[in-house]
């Protein structure tokens, strides 16, 4: 079983690079299931119904999020209606939507996906450790393979959660900081781990914002509107191999793929020529995403 996790898809540049590369990546690496964090997909602030629906068409199976999922009021109804768009499970009772889901692959293998949020340097919500206990117990009734998106600021909290969940889940991948770490490994009891998957979007930026906008805030201490950068677009992702029988991870590999559209995707991935009738499901320009 091979699961691909796409790091925080950010703004139009992030959506565009996923629309271009995901189909080719899935073919090259024989990906069975795709999960993506989408909490910054709408201009860096939340996600809209239209954007979420479009991202699903690119080949994403489950969408996760974090604290920015609440940035747009329209998302509240979307969370109630779309079970494959998750918000962190450890928000208090009454929050719309769900923090976990089980979805089957095309081959019929159930995959449990859990989204939780940290508390260190972030908004105080319910305990992610205790929440993970109850959610994992429920998910294990339906799936041996369980993937966790831990949306947190502090490296220490993410590492602690890794030790806490090793042996109970297949993978724990951190999100939120938008800076990919280089500590991917398999824990002793078979859990794949990476402190942060990074960001899918413009890397010539400060966490997605134009550098001049971020500098204006740091240098003056005054409010300054952030605008989305558009240079050095990358798709950051993590590929995890999992044994279906045991639910234990056997391999983990991280990616930061540069792509500017100047090379056809088939050539970029070294794929064979398109066969007659084969469909390449991606838009042709940034305006289509």
Structural class: alpha/beta
Q: How many distinct helices?
A: 7
Helix content bin: 25-40%
CATH architecture: 4-Layer Sandwich
How many structural domains?
1
CATH class: Alpha Beta
Count the strands?
13
Mean pLDDT: 95
Q: Can you tell me the residue ranges where pLDDT is under 50 for at least 5 consecutive residues?
A: none
Using the coordinates shown, work out and report the CATH topology.
Answer: Purple Acid Phosphatase, chain A, domain 2
Our measurement of the CA-to-CA distance between the termini, rounded to an integer number of angstroms, reads 29 Å
Strand content: 15-25%
Gyration radius, rounded: 18 Å
> What would you call the shape?
globular
Please describe the biggest sheet, giving its number of strands, its sense, and whether it closes into a barrel: 7 strands, mixed
What is the CATH homology-level superfamily? Metallo-dependent phosphatases
Question: What is the succession of H and E elements?
Answer: EEHEHEHEEHEHEEEEHEEH
């Amino acid at each position: 079983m091979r699961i691909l996790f796409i790091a925080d898809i950010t703004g139009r540049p992030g959506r565009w690079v996923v629309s271009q590369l995901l189909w080719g990546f899935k073919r090259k690496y024989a990906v069975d299931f795709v999960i993506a964090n989408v909490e910054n997909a709408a201009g860096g602030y939340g996600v809209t119904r239209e954007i979420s629906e479009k991202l699903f068409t690119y080949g994403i199976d489950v969408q996760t999020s974090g604290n920015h999922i609440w940035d747009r009021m329209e998302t509240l109804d979307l969370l109630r209606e779309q079970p494959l768009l998750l918000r962190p499970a450890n928000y208090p009772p009454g929050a719309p939507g769900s923090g976990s889901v089980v979805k089957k692959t095309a081959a019929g293998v159930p995959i449990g996906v859990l989204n939780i949020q940290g508390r260190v340097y972030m908004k105080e919500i319910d305990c992610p450790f205790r929440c993970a206990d109850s959610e994992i117990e429920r998910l294990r009734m339906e799936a041996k393979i369980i993937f966790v998106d831990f949306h947190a600021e502090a490296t220490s909290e993410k590492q602690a959660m890794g030790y806490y969940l090793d042996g109970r889940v297949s993978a724990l991948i951190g999100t939120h900081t938008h800076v990919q770490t280089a500590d991917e490994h398999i824990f002793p009891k078979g859990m794949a781990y990476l402190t942060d998957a990074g960001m899918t979007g413009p890397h010539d930026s400060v966490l997605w914002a134009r550098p001049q906008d971020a500098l204006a805030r740091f240098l003056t201490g005054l409010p300054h509107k952030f605008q989305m950068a558009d240079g050095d677009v990358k798709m950051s992702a993590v590929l995890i191999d999992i044994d279906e029988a045991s639910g234990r991870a056997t391999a983990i590999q991280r990616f930061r793929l540069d792509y500017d559209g100047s090379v056809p995707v088939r050539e970029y991935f070294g794929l064979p020529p398109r066969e007659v009738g084969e469909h390449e499901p991606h838009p042709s320009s940034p305006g289509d995403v």
